[in-house]
Each structure stands twice: as structure tokens, then as C-alpha cells.
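Same chain as my last thread, 243 residues:
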Amino acid sequence: MTYSVKKPLFNTQVLGSALCAALLFGIGSQSAIAANYDFPHLETVGISQVQVAPDMAEISVQVSLTKTTAKEAKLAVDEAVVKFIARLKEAGVSTDDIQSANLQIQPQYHYPSKQPRELTGYHASRQLTVTVMKLNQLNDILDSALEEGINRVQNIALKSSDETKAIEQARQAAINDAKQKAQSLAQGFDRKLDGVWEIRYLTQHPVQPVMMRMSAVQSDTMESYQYGEVNVEERVEVVYRLK
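reply #2:
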């Protein structure tokens, strides 16, 4: 798997109780860490971004039908779900990668003018979430869903099996970014670092790209879909004491 690391711009601020009037360094209008310290210190923010090529996908599909009776509606959506799951198993999709939501049934009414409402039928729906471990199977699985009566494709999120590795790589890059900035700033102001005082870290969630249809006239169906990249961003805020 190929990774690319990006380091976007950040906000950095050097503060100190004895230096506030003379030393105030910043890029941007707000401090990344809003806190007051009674000793000379330096605050840095380390940021990194790793892009990972997707090799799997998570799809959410739904069957939604209206029938005369609640029983007919239930049987119709259940039949579509059972047939689609059977197709998934034939394609080698594990049962653990298939999540089927509970049945929902709602009565449907017609409201004529100045007349009591009239029951016209029952609307039933079931949703399935499927993790497709092999991206080259995605198009065939979507086709089989439509063939078996699944009539709504709600979401297609592309993922990577290497996300954990990418997150760790991005985290270490963010840590190194914070260290380099702190050393550079301290040296620039003729000061020395006196160790780390505080570390603040919030877990970031990978941004999952959604598969988009680019063109319906291309001959190769798979090439008509654009596969984006999974973006993994990490951020660490560090407070250093200054000697």
C-alpha cells in the first residue's frame, strides 16, 4: 500500500509569564491551546495527513416496498433480503460482514378533502450494511442487489485495510512535526527547551471517500467510478517548558 504524508499549516504560539510583553509569536489569530501557565513555555501543534488507496468498501442498501397488507409488505422485503444475502454468500462475502437491520412497517393513508383518512396499504423497509473486502467485487455486488429487489443504494464508503497502520504513521508524523517546530522556535528566540509539560491528543477519524459516478456513457463500467483516497489526519498539541 502506498502512503503520502502531508503537513498543512498550523497555529503556533510562544508564551511565558516573564516574556509575554517581549515574546509573542504566532501564525493565525487564535492559540491552539487555550491555557494559562505561570512559567515560560512554548506551545506547538503537530499536524499530519496520510492518504491511503482504498481496497475495500462498505455499502448501505435498502429494500422499500408498499403492499396492500402488512403481511404482504413484510414477506416482500424479507424475500428480497434473503435472496440478496444468498447472492452475497455465493460471492464469498462472510456472514460477519453482513448486517441486516430490523423490519419497519408503517401504514399508508390517503387524506381526501373533508373526508376521513383512508388506509391505502403498508410500507415496509429493511436496510443492509455490507463490508466488501475485495473492491473488484463491488460493482457485481451492487448489480446483484438491484436484481434481487434491493431498490435503494444509500451510501458507498471506500475504506482501506491498512487504516490502522496509516493512523499510526500519521500520529508519529504529527509528533515529529510538533518536536521540530518546538526546537526551531526555541532556537530562533535563543531559548532552550526544558522538557514536555503537557500533551493533548484527540483521536481523529479517517475520512472515508464516497464512490461517485463520473459518467454513464463510458464503455467500461468500473472505469466510470472514481475511487478517492482515504485521508487520515492526526493532530497533537504539546506544551514545552522553557529554560
